[in-house]
Amino acid sequence: MKILLVQDTDWLLRGPHQQHHLLERLSLKGHEVRVIDYELLWRTQGKKELRSKRQVFDNISRFYGGAQIMLIRPGIMKLPWLDYVSSIFSYRREIRHQMKDFCPDVIIGFGILSTYLAMRAAQKNNIAFVYYWIDVLHRLIPFKPFHPIAKSLESKTLRQADKVLVINDKLKDYVKELGAPPERTWILRAGIDIERFDPVIKGDTIRQHYGLTKKDIVLFFMGWLYQFSGLKEVASRLAQIDNHNLKLLIVGEGDAYEALQQIREKHNLKNRIILTGKRPYHEIPEFIAASDVCLLPAYPDEKIMQDIVPIKTYEYMAMKKPVIATRLPGVMKEFGEDSGVVYVDKPEDAVTKAMELIQGDKIEELGQKARSFVERYSWQSITDEFEKILKETVESSRLKRSRF
Q1: Nearest to 130 by CA among 7, 307, 32
Q2: Which residues have C-beta within 8 Å of that of residue 116, sequence separation ≥ 6?
Q3: pLDDT digits (tens, 9 = 90+) for 168-226
C-alpha cells in the first residue's frame, strides 16, 4: 500500500509515539510510507529565519533499522500565531501535491488541522481516510480560546472518517460523544517492543554513570516534562524525606525542567534528583533497568490526562518494574487493580507509596505482574492488526466508490 500520514507535530524530535512504531514497521513490511509533519519546536530549536522552506527527508528511520519513510515538512512563517495561519495554506498545498505525485491508497490523520485538511482531500479524491486518536489533542493547545474551534474540527473529521481508531476504551467513549460513528470506531491499543524492553537488560552502567549505588532506591520518570506531570510535587516531597539513598531519576525535557532544577538547587539535592535531559531511545531500556520503581504521577484532575494511556507505561511494565500512578481514569480502566500498577491520590504520595512497596518487599511480585500483563501487546501483533484494518478500509472504500 501507499500510505500518507499527516500530523501537527515534529516527527523527528517528538516521540516515539504510536505512529512511529506502526509506520516504521509497515515500511519494513514493504509498504511505501510518506509523512507530512509540522516544525512544532521552531521557537526553541529551529533555524532562526522569517520563513522556512519546504524540506524533504528521505529514508527516515528513527527506531527500527531498515525502515524507509519519506518525511515532508511544509514551510511556515516563523512568527507567533502566523506559523499556524501559514500552515493552513502550506499544508493544503502539500496535501494536494501528494494526491497527484504519490496517489496514496490511504491517508491516516494524527492531528487536528492537518487531519481535517487531509480528510477533505481524501473525500475529494475518493481515497480511504483513517483518523487515529492517541490523545485529546485540542486540550494540548496552549491558547485556550482556540479549544472550541479545534474541537469542532475534530468532530467534523470524526464524522467523515472511513475508520476511527483509538488506543483505549476511554478514548472510544470520548470520540463517540464527539460524533464518531460507533460502527466505524475500533480500539487498537498501544504496544510494546517485547524484545527491546527485555527485563534481562542490566542497568549497572547507567547507575555507575550517574553515581547511583546498590543501596540507592531509584524512582524513575521519562518523557516530556509537562507542568502537570506531577514531578515538581514528587521532587518537593523527596526533599522532605531524610533518606539520602532515595533518588529521583528523570529522563526528558520540557516545560517543568527549569522548575525541577530550581527545586534541586533550593534543597541541595544534586545527588538525589538526577535530570539527564533527553536521551536516545535505544538507551531507554537501560535507564528503566537502572530503576526500582517507575512513576506516572500526573495531576489526576488534568483534562489532558483523563482519557489517555501513555506508551511509556507499557515500557515500564515490560521491564518488570512496578508503576505508581495517580488515579487517571484512562490508566485505571486499562490496567485495573492487579497488573503491577499501584495507584495514589496525589503526585507527592508516589514517594511514600514507593517506600511502602520496598519495605513490604513487593517490588519483584508487582514487576512480574506488570510484565505478564503487557506481553500480550507486542508491536508486531498490533502492526499486523493495523495493516489488516488499513487493507480492509481501502477495499471497503474502493467498493463504495464503484457503486457511484
Answers
A1: 7
A2: 109, 153, 156, 157
A3: 898 999 999 999 999 999 999 988 998 999 999 999 999 999 999 999 999 999 999 99
Q: What is the pTM of this model?
A: 0.82
2-191+379-402 is classed in which CATH architecture? 3-Layer(aba) Sandwich (3.40)
Asked if 120 and 157 count as a contact pair (C-beta separation under 8 A), the reply is no
Q: Collapsing DSSP states into helix, strand and coil, what is residue 294?
A: strand
CA distances 201 to 180, 195, 197, 288, 373, Å, are: 42, 10, 8, 9, 19
Q: How are strands ordered across the β-sheet holding 128-133? A: 55-60, 69-73, 32-36, 2-6, 106-109, 128-133, 163-166, 185-187
Angle between helix 231-240 and 349-359 (nearest 10): 60
| Cα 26 to Cα 391: distance, rounded to the nearest angstrom | 12
DSSP label of 101 = H
Q: What is the dihedral of CA 223, 228, 229, 230, to 10 degrees?
A: 160
Strands 55-60 and 69-73: antiparallel
Kindly provide the b/e burial profile for residues 221-255, where b requires at least 16 CB atoms within 10 angstroms of the residue's own CB. bbbebbebbbbbbbbbbbbeeeeeebbbbbbbbee
Q: What are the domain boundaries of the chain?
A: 2-191+379-402, 204-374
The span from the CA of 332 to the CA of 305, in Å, is: 12
* CA-to-CA separations, 286 to 136, 151, 207, in angstroms, rounded: 31, 39, 9
Domain 204-374 CATH class label? alpha beta
371 in Cβ contact with 317 (< 8 Å): yes
Distance CA 118, CA 8 (A): 12
Question: What is the Cβ-side half-sphere exposure of residue 138, based on CA atoms within 13 angstroms?
Answer: 19
